[in-house]
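We treat protein structure as text, and this decision shapes the records that our systems exchange. Because each token names a local backbone shape, the row as a whole describes the fold. For reference, a complete record is included directly beneath this paragraph.
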Amino acid sequence: MFFEGGKRMGFIKDKIFRRRSFLLTLILSLLLSITGSYSVEAKKTNINDSSDIKLEISVDNNWEEDGLDYSLINVYIWNNSGRDISNWSVDLPIKNKDIDQIWNAKASYKDKGLSFEAVEYNNTIMADSNVCFGLIVKGKDKINKASGQLYYDNSVITNTNYQKNSNNNSKNNKALNKTVPAKDVPAPTTDDWLYTDGNRIVDKNGNEVWLTGVNWFGYNTGTNTFDGLWTADLNTSIAAIADRGFNVLRIPISSELILNWADGDIPSANFNQSINHYLVGMNSLEIFDYVVGQCRANGIKIIIDIHSAKTDPMGHLKPLWLEGDITEDDYLYSLSWIADRYKNDDTIIAYDLKNEPHGKPNEEQKAIWNDSKAANNWKYVAEKAAYAVLSKNPNALVLVEGIEIYPKNLKTNKDYSSTNSGDYYFNWWGGNLRGVKDYPINLGKYQNKLVYSPHDYGPSVYAQPWFEGNFTYKSLYEDCWKDNWMFIHEQEIAPLLIGEWGGHMSEPNLKWMVYLRKLIKDNRLNHTFWCFNANSGDTGGLVLDDFTTWDEEKYNFVKSVLWQKNGKFVGLDHEIPLGRNGISLSEYYK
């Protein structure tokens, strides 16, 4: 069997269940457990300095799901030799295991296990940099981390500066030779804060705005910056997002990372230090501040998304806002701290309080929505989380997502005591906002800061019941959108922002995308597309595997629901235009 890097090799699904894999690069640091990794010296191939070329195998996570055992393995090749190396491959003694996912490499079975080879964009490992590939396997056999072998050829050249690179790697050439410089960063402002008016989001003058953005993850996974900076240039990527018309960037992050920042225990970020040389010497918080500055300079606003409690590539699978040693108080403090830090900078315009609270009727941990003070009542906790933000920054918007299940009969099952699935309405994680009808979020004097934020996906992620048969725009509206969240817009309860939507451009998923795009366009619904990242396995991204080349077909599909006027993209800043091809709010409303 043969596996292409970046594609899912199997997908364990449960009823009304979605597992989006954050296919990541986690560069191992001293902060990680020594017991979780093993380094071996590379096989020599006519290079005298091979002691500076290391192979490291890290089992970063183990978990059980639906009775199956899974392991997340990351493999790192460190090149500190002062030269470029090419045509690498790695043999791992992995037997009796099925590959569930793989990224940044291609694999084939051999007698002694699995052999991994480079893909085009990481075939050459530049001097003083590294490559990481990863996989998720299922099976109970223990992995022998000490017996991996690295091979590479003699196609090396000396690379003594940031611009010189091997001609064997066209993708790295593109990233290095077509970069754009950082923009001068203007001082933070406080005149771009947004408010709500019925089902609209408006600026300080009461003029309606349209948030049309994109997601870029990595701050939640352990990369501690954006994923993809192992091949892409940060400045170029931010500029491209602005130039192509995305006026807001939703940034998934973990509470744990924010707490690390707050405690001064700041982890390093993991990126290609040759391509992103201007970030060398910065820690992850300093790089985040750099990101905020470059977004401001390019006219992009930011939504902070608390994606998981722990910094964990699989953290989004956890149903609640607390996990392990991350308590509810810790979660609330993480929101309070980051809101306070950026309270005088309207680049960060909103806070998505928690990504995709969920849980099924028969699960011990599940998010509920009612008028109780239960620890797992998302409605109750969301109001506390909103206050944690707004007590520090009363100008920010707060986004409240839905849950997964809602009782069909509140008289008999208001407390979610039934474990029978038939007693509940199901929807996507974060997409069930039926509870707003019965128990709306109450923010008191801050009510004009509330935005509801459902997520919606297509049949390539999971074959939901409403995709059965020949589904239509009307059937999707009646069977899913209307009662789960569209009523909030139609009854002018509050604005909607669809925080995640997107997927592969193939049928039948494309049909769903066309219909949801129509709903967004006809109603001017705010949205952030999922996602910029190439390494989202069940949706793909706006960029290809090199994180530099755009998927023009997908981009052109999304482009029609980006805010535009006379061919110019419209930003959310009153003074700074959105990228090279956009205008400011003041220019739009002049």
In short: The two ends are 61 Å apart (CA to CA). The domain at 195-588 is CATH 3.20.20.80 (TIM Barrel). The longest strand covers residues 53-65. The chain has two domains: 2-168, 195-588.
